[in-house]
Amino acid sequence: MEKKVLDWLLEGPAWLKYAVQLQLLDENPDIESVREDSAIKGLISRLGDSNYGIPALKNGRVHYTETGKAYWDLFILADIGLTFKDLSLETLAEDIFRFQRQDGSFVIPPNVQDSYFCMSAILISSLARMGYRDDPRVEKYIRLALNSQSNDGGWYCHYFGYDPDVESCPMDNLNLLMLLGQYENQRENPKLNGAIDSLLEHWENRLHLHGFGIGRRFRSLQYPAVKYGILRVLDVLSLFPYAVDSRSFRSMVDLVEQKAIDGKYTPEIINGAYTDFDFAQMEKPSRWLTFLVNRIEKRAEQN
């Protein structure tokens, strides 16, 4: 990364500067200014809201595709590198664990069933990244997920009953790998190569698979990529050396890098739920998107 781009990133708000220092520069930044940042305080407040936050999960008021609510607000905080302890939100973390069943699965209203790993993995990935990676309850969920792979090495929600011969779903694979990639012992696990190959081949084949395609929306720079998007696919795959070594991964990175202007990236699709953040505007380059691309590049170089 060029110094002028790094300097520009470090001129951003406290939460972004924290992410850059922690994840790109491998420093130990101070958390206090992040806690006082108005945008972060807004997310924290919404996470505790009975209509939009984690307390609303039990009433089925929060769907996993809805931005500006618990699933993706938590995802953003995890992406920055914050923990439940940093934000004094441990009680909310325990509220998520209350949805876990004896077998390790999570059944969350309104429609997350025990076999719908793609949906529950969004929340469990955030739990893992935000301080609960080694929690026995998360480990139990992971064991169950690994024992539920389809024959091609990926996952499928099994809306119509379990069939291990059904081709795995891109979103299932993406969200499970998003969780598993947080663990060093899983990043080179050959048992995950099938799910990784599925994502790479989806990019190459451009097929419409289980409702997910490789069209304009997928190729557009957007955050968070709730439904499916190139930045989140690259971000997840960058955790796995097997993926980074592939021609398909490099092809996706090349497409993204061609969108840069002076090393900076501008959103091409925005979400109105996050107007306090620069990834929700298209008028000028986004420090956050630029950070994300540089994080992908850094991981790829290290792997």
Describe the structure.
The structure is a single chain. With 303 residues, the chain is mainly alpha-helical. The protein has a domain at 192-303. The protein is 50% helix and 0% strand. The longest helix has 16 residues, at 117-132. It is globular.
Summarize the biggest pleated sheet. Answer: none
Shape: globular
Question: Between the first and last Cα atoms, what is the distance in angstroms?
Answer: 17 Å
| Rg, Å, rounded | 18 Å
Throw out a few tags for this protein.
303 residues; 16 helices; globular
Briefly say what this structure is.
The chain is mainly alpha-helical and about 300 residues long. It has helices spanning about 5-10, 15-25, 30-35, 40-45, 70-80, 90-95, 115-130, 135-145, 170-180, 185, 195-205, 215-220, 230-235, 240-245, 245-255, 285-300. The two termini are about 15 Å apart.
